[in-house]
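task queued by scheduler; priority normal; single chain, no ligands, no partner chains; default sampling; output format set to structure tokens
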Amino acid sequence: MIFETHTLNLPLSSYIESIFHFKDFMPEHSIERVVPTGHIFIIFELDNIPRNTFDNETLKPNNTFTKVWVSGMHRNYISISAHQKSEMFVIQFKPFGAYPFFYFPIESLNERILPAKEVFGEELLDLREKLLIQGTSKGKFRLAENWLMNRFAAKKTPPTDLLNVLKNLQREPATNYPQVIENYPNTQKHLIDQFKRYIGLTPKYYQRILRFNEILQQIQQKEKIVWSQVAYQCGYTDQSHFIKEFKHFSGFNPQEFIKQEYHQEEKNFFPLDREG
């Protein structure tokens, strides 16, 4: 299997979390659960294999995506297909990073996965054709970086006050949320409006996603997990609230999660049918 990532330079590195390309991926499952991370993605399939999303309860297909699509902010988990011998190219934006490339309020992408043509016209379909022709990961990265630089609008970057709130939410414990919000120099309504424009979610919901991902980080690869300790360290004073939040974002209660050994998997993708 090929798995390559690309290091970007400024200004793109300030807004793009990662760009990666993989080929000949051979999963041992056909459906996986994806939990929210607070990022927006542009996804290219380079293998002509249609991808599906599934109803979270019945696991019946509900949508099909081909060529290039955009995945917006999701408030809880989604179920997607995984395929043998797959090849994909992915651009992952930082939580605040999409607006300078999309040019419209990011909130309009919430809970949506849609063909890239609906957002960018033919631009990304043309880029996909070039990616298919380019034989190396390095060459593909160069093409994507050129597109991103041409698309980047410096006048649409997020304001400093908003970025400061984001940084503080990411580094402060969840219990300090009220203080972080109080330090914003404008009204709370203004902050919410800015979050919806540049990030898609409200500050409070974004903080909930951060806290859930902190839980996954803490338990990953652990031999022994004391859930009461994890809940306390992540700012939950009520065990039932912790369990409810965990199930909201993952679809599993904590004990079920460990029983399935998902803490041994990639921390945002969990196989639902390991036999494939």
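post-processing summary
- Residues 203-219 form the longest helix (17 residues).
- Residues 1-276 form a domain with the Arc Repressor Mutant, subunit A fold (CATH 1.10.10.60).
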